[in-house]
Amino acid sequence: MKKLFVSILFAIDGLRYAFTSEKNFKIELSVALIVICMGLLLSFSYAEWLIVLLNIGAVLSAEIFNTAIEKACDFVADSLHPLIKIIKDTAAGAVLVTGIIAAICGVLIFGKHIIILFQTV
C-alpha cells in the first residue's frame, strides 16, 4: 500500500511539473475546464460526456507524454541531433493529431446543441 501511495505522489509531482512549466498544458487544461462548464450548461448526454472526457484525457495525456519525451531527449543530447528532432517532432505530432480529433468531436457535439438552442429561440 505504501508503494502505491508513493507512486501516486510521484504522478502528482509529474502533473504539477506539467502544469507549472508547460504553457500548452495550461492552455489545454483551460480549454478542458471551459468545455466541462459548457457541457454542464448544455446538459450533455451520458454518451456525450464519455466522448468529451475521453478526448480531454487523451489530449492532456498526449501533452504529458510529449513533455516527458522532450525532457528525455534534452537529457540525452545537448545539441539538436537529426534523430532527436524527429523524435520531438513526432511526439508533438501525436499531440496535434489528438487535439484535432478532440476538436472535431467537440464541433460535432457542441454544434448539435447550438443548433437546438437556436431552434428554440
TrEMBL record:
GO terms for molecular function: kinase activity. Gene3D superfamilies: 1.10.287.3610. The keyword Transferase applies. The keyword RNA-binding does not apply. It is found in: Cell membrane. InterPro entries: DAGK, DAGK_sf, UDPK. It is a multi-pass membrane protein. Its EC number is 2.7.1.-. Belongs to the bacterial diacylglycerol kinase family. This is Diacylglycerol kinase family protein. It comes from Ferruginibacter yonginensis. The lineage of its organism: Bacteria, Pseudomonadati, Bacteroidota, Chitinophagia, Chitinophagales.
